Amino acid sequence: MSKPHKSHALGAVLALFALLVVGSSVFAAGQSTGGGKELFEKRCGGCHALDRDKEGPRLRGVYGRVAGSVDSFQYSDAVKKSKITWTDEMLDQWLTDTEKLVPGNDMTFHVEKAGERAEIIAYLKQTLDK
After folding, report:
1. CATH of the domain at 46
2. Where are the alpha helices (DSSP H) in 31-113?
């Protein structure tokens, strides 16, 4: 039996790495890996909480809710008039560029990485039943 060449081992390692990278990207796009809570706390927690208004409105139940509809929070007129229902697509657009989706809103923050947006959205969806 011959010994495997170094190039075969290197090829196998590179193929495994590529599979892991592609697989993790596909997984993150479709569902949460459990990092959504940490991302939410890190990226959103300064202004938002799940169960109380802070600088931004409470976000438990935001998925499927009409924008600007939490009575205890003072939204911008632009958000109140937007009539947006928060779905995967709308939340992704909002987190990508709030000003493009709703010009004149008060939130200037955005999440550049699509994978992070997907994790945060998946987490917000998971909090509906808790």
Report:
1. 1.10.760.10
2. 36-39, 77-82, 88-96, 98-101
